[in-house]
Amino acid sequence: MSSFVQYILSGLSIGAIYSLIGLGFCIMWSACRSVNFAHGDVLMVGAVIAVVSMDANIPMVLGIPAAILVCIGYGVLIERFAVRPFNKDGTAIGWMLTTIAIGIMVESYATIKFGSFARALPSPGVDKPISILGAGVYAQELFIPAFAVLFMLALDIFYRRTVLGRAMRAVAFNRVAAGLMGINVNRITAISFGLAAGLGGAAGVLVGPIIQVSTTMGVLIGLKGFAVAIMASITSARGVVITGLLYGVMEKFVEGYISTAAREVIGFSIMILVLLAFPQGVFGKKEAMKV
């Protein structure tokens, strides 16, 4: 019983990280039908800067917000110089290569600058484990899925109740019509990328105390976050969170009952089967196109 509970709690924690990365893809895609394919590296940037800040004796209350702000700026720059010039029309795909290339460069620079270290980010949330039905879990692990759900709900309120959120929804629905109504489409797109990057940086700060922070940590997490977004439907924020949590739990059960080596094989096999059954995503809807 304790092992069963342990797998569920640990799975919800890592699944919430996939959900947060997936939400970032959802925010970017909704804004301009393009994404930062190196979005996982934003998670790495946030975590590494937070660790470096702690090493420099910068208080956590200053270091963590600074790391997230750097990620926001990074996201805005990615949109301006790696996405916008290569996304002139709906069929352009140059932004795929440019974002991947910049992600590789950022990862390489971080390795050169800070070294290929692997260490945990200090946090009071991992000082003492909590026992739940015989399973041991840190407070940090319980906080991450709660944060993912709360952010999803806050994002829904933001989209519906604020002027900026409504502008983002208008751009997502029809960029041309939104521009004709006086909305600065480029500015809204940049804000969307900044918001997604800030969320990715926050995910890095949250997961840093649980897993080892390294300059290569974002690659696989980013890929799984993208897989979660595609399986759920990249336009459904609620679907992304639900799918991410379930995917994380599935991974932990595979690790526990089969092996760690089988985790990726089974996980990505499930992704392929889901997309074969639901080409639009589990929570997606078929889009009617007028010709």
From TrEMBL:
Chief place of localization: membrane
Keyword Transmembrane listed: yes
Topology within the bilayer: Multi-pass membrane protein
Subcellular location: Cell membrane
Matching CDD domains: TM_PBP1_LivH_like
Coiled coil: none
Ranges annotated as spanning the membrane: 6-29, 60-78, 90-112, 132-155, 191-213, 225-250, 265-283
Keywords: Amino-acid transport, Cell membrane, Membrane, Transmembrane, Transmembrane helix, Transport
A Pfam family the protein falls into: BPD_transp_2
UniProt xrefs under InterPro entries: ABC_transp_permease, BCAA_transport_permease
UniProt similarity note: Belongs to the binding-protein-dependent transport system permease family. LivHM subfamily.
UniProt protein name: High-affinity branched-chain amino acid transport system permease protein LivH
Organism: Cupriavidus laharis
